[in-house]
Amino acid sequence: MSGGLWRLPALALAWRNLRRNRLRSVLAALGIAIGVFVIVVLGIFGTVLQLSASQELGGIGNQVIVSPAEERQAEALTPRQIQSVERAAVGRGTAVPVYAENALASAGSQQSPAQIYGIDNPAALFEGRDRSLPAQHRGGAFVGPSVASALDLQIGSTVEVGGQQYRVVGFLEPSQDITPIQPNNAIVLAEREFTGGYDQAVVVADSPEDATAVADDIDRRLNVRTDRVDIFELSELLDTIAEFFTLLNRFLIALGSVSLLVAGVSILNLMLMSTAERRGEIGLMRAVGIHRESVLRLLLAEATLLGAIGGFFGAVLSGLAALALWAVTPIGLDVVVVPRNGGYLVGGFVFGIAVALISGAYPAWKAAGERPVEALRG
Amino acid sequence: MNNTDHTTATVEPAIRLESVTKQYVGAETVTALADVDLPVYGGEFLAIVGPSGSGKSTMLNLLGLLDGPTEGVVRLGGRDVTDLSETELTDARREYIGFVFQDFHLLPTLTAVENVTLPTAFTDGQYADRAVDLLGRVGLGDRLDHTPDELSGGQKQRVAIARALINRPEILLADEPTGNLDRETGVTILEEVRRICERGVAVVAVTHDELVTEYADRTVRLVDGRLGEGDDGFAT
């Protein structure tokens, strides 16, 4: 009976009209579903790519590495320069003066090239493999995993560097991060094993923004008239990389939007056809006293329903596709289930409705605005 | 029904065309109605006959407030409705006028009851009970939930009549109400219309069908947009 039908008359009539030609309605909704699916999946794909990349790049953005300016051919940083770096780092991170050189390490008959560091606070730059590194280096050698396996070293083994023998006191945790201070090939000794000035100073900043600020500060303090030190700082590079990913993401989504645009055109076409076919019915509704605005609402409800149904299935399918990405690739759930991807799901759904609504607007406006006398002629 | 009763000035026509001219402006201007005066009174069954192109449909559109005159005045219950806005006209149609069409114009997606309540769909109030009542009155009490494709032509026209009555109209306009029906069914429909008329509703039917004129109180003939001489078109 009609009791329930007229509670939401526009929606009820719209639903009946869509069911009247089911195949046509399903195809139009399918177009929207595909469009939403493509946009959401590309958006999620872009996020996953970006988040995975920033995980890989890791702490790179937090480090500032200061070394003597190449053009001045200085061998080492002066104590005053070290002091300036330490001052610049106050409140923003930890400054670590570093001796660094390349050397051949050997144990027994085996040899391996290694990066030798002299650092009194190895904990600031490296992680220990089995136990944490001391904040004060008390002698002996902390050995990176590549060197350790090349020389077959154990705790207590002896490794020879530059004619001196050192007892292995710990191992460094390998790092996935991209950084110039690499633990894999490193042998970390105490500072007292080195002579002369420091080769580098590394500032481990609390955040990429701090790293940028520290780098600027050091530049102001030390490179006043001429460049005395080179400052290597990656947070800006990270920004550039992030910008690239944002651009890539937008490009992908724009590409996806084209398919939604095509879906919009198909809704436009469907609505033009169906309002033309129903000209007489629309004229009848107007003649028996249904207002133009109500007819407009009814026709827009049809377009919106198509968009909502298509958008819903598109969003659900893309959510499943994102979970499939997690299930069948090594990509972690932590880069798939993030708020931004949720935003793409909701945004795609809303965008699908919006496209359908906009596409339906012209046919609806045209049909509702026709004078009933003319529309009634069919 | 004796229409001479209405010649007294005290009775207001349900609807009235006063010196109405309707022209269609195109490549060449066509005068569909020329200076027509026509009152229609409550309880009167008026048939409008005439050859194709004589202005019958135009007249029905004007009486139904679907179109406005080029010149002249349309009065609905004495009130000048010539210059109402589209929204006001829509409201006036819903409140005072019922339409019955030759090809029924039922919505195929709706049941009989839903079709009958369609004019009230976007308004407040419950009309389902009245729709059931009306369908019972036109003999379709057992077809309430049938869709138009499950109904015969005569049944469809009776649904359309019930729809035209849902708003308790003062004027019922019928465009060739028997045009798509066989004679027997036509008679049933006309008897129904006759009963509506006797409840005080003004009925105007545009028709080619001699049968309709037999049931009418009054028949006017339109020729080239003018009311034919000898017909009772100038009642006042």
TrEMBL record, chain A:
Family according to the record: Belongs to the ABC-4 integral membrane protein family.
Membrane topology: Multi-pass membrane protein
ABC3 transporter permease C-terminal domain span: 255-369
Residue ranges occupied by any MacB-like periplasmic core domain in the UniProt entry: 25-220
Pfam families: FtsX, MacB_PCD
This protein's name: FtsX-like permease family protein
Species this protein is from: Halovenus carboxidivorans
Keyword set, alphabetical order: Cell membrane, Membrane, Transmembrane, Transmembrane helix
InterPro entries attached to this UniProt entry: ABC3_permease_C (IPR003838), MacB_PCD (IPR025857), Macrolide_Exporter_MacB (IPR050250)
Magnesium among keywords: no
TM segment ranges: 26-49, 251-274, 295-324, 344-365
Cell compartments where the protein resides: Cell membrane
GO cellular component, one term: plasma membrane
Superkingdom assignment: Archaea
An MF annotation (GO) of this entry: transmembrane transporter activity
From TrEMBL, chain B:
GO CC, one annotated term: membrane protein complex
Gene3D superfamilies associated with the record: P-loop containing nucleotide triphosphate hydrolases
Keyword ATP-binding (UniProt): yes
Keywords: ATP-binding, Nucleotide-binding, Transport
InterPro entries: AAA+_ATPase, ABC_transporter-like_ATP-bd, ABC_transporter-like_CS, ABC_transpr_LolD-like, MacB-like_ATP-bd, P-loop_NTPase
Entry superkingdom: Archaea
Domain ABC transporter stretches: 15-235
Protein name: ATP-binding cassette domain-containing protein
Native source species: Halovenus carboxidivorans
